[in-house]
Structure formats: structure tokens, C-alpha cells
């Protein structure tokens, strides 16, 4: 038995075309089965829609720490909300995706620094 060059379906060695997809087979050619990049053991690469917003959400309170004026309660609450959103987005990105792990780790580190800085601010 051999495999179809186009779809990887197992076909008879003497078949001129694949009964599954109809692809014409080269005579005497025994192709290996087609391998998919996304097998059951290979995670999907993912997109950058989680780590990029995590970076942005962690950068906002981090940059707000450079404000020399005292913070009011709204600024403090907003900073904690951005830090929470960055932490959740980065954690989900690390758990579910293979692409953008470096950005997710950077977002977590920036969120931790922003959290420490926010806790140290005066009202």
C-alpha cells in the first residue's frame, strides 16, 4: 500500500489516481503520508491578540508612575484595573498560545512592577 501525494489517504500501489481526492499519482511513486503541522500533539501557534493588549495594559499604569503629582482614588482604581487586565491577558496567553510568550512574560513583569509602584503611591 502507498499513500496519496495530495491528501495522504492510503491507496493501492497500482492506483493511477486517488479515490479520495482524485489526484493523479506518479507511476511507481510511493509517497509518504501527508503530515499536518497541526497534529494532536502540536499546539496551534496562536495570534498576538492576547500578549499585545497585555503589554499595553501593563505599560499604562507603569508610565503613570512617572507622574509626580499625588494620585486620587480614581487613578488608583484605574491603575489596579489595568494591572488586573494585563495579568489576566498575559496569563491566558501563556497558558493557551505558543506565539508571543516573550511578550506575555514581559507584560507580567511590567504588571508586577506597576503593582509595586501603585501600592507605593500616596493618595
From TrEMBL:
Key words of the record: Membrane, Transmembrane, Transmembrane helix
Keyword Transmembrane listed: yes
Domain of life: Bacteria
Membrane-crossing segments per the record: 48-66, 78-96, 102-121
Stated name of the protein: Zinc-ribbon domain-containing protein
Amino acid at each position: 500500500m502507498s499513500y496519496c501525494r495530495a491528501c495522504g489517504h492510503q491507496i493501492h500501489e497500482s492506483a493511477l489516481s486517488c479515490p479520495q481526492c482524485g489526484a493523479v499519482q506518479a507511476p511507481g511513486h510511493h509517497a509518504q503520508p501527508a503530515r499536518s503541522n497541526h497534529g494532536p500533539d502540536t499546539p496551534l501557534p496562536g495570534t498576538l491578540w492576547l500578549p499585545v493588549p497585555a503589554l499595553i495594559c501593563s505599560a499604562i499604569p507603569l508610565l503613570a508612575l512617572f507622574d509626580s503629582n499625588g494620585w486620587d482614588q480614581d487613578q488608583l482604581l484605574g491603575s489596579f484595573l489595568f494591572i488586573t487586565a494585563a495579568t489576566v491577558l498575559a496569563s491566558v496567553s501563556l497558558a493557551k498560545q505558543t506565539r508571543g510568550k516573550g511578550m506575555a512574560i514581559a507584560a507580567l513583569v511590567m504588571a508586577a512592577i506597576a503593582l509595586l509602584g501603585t501600592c507605593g503611591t500616596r493618595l
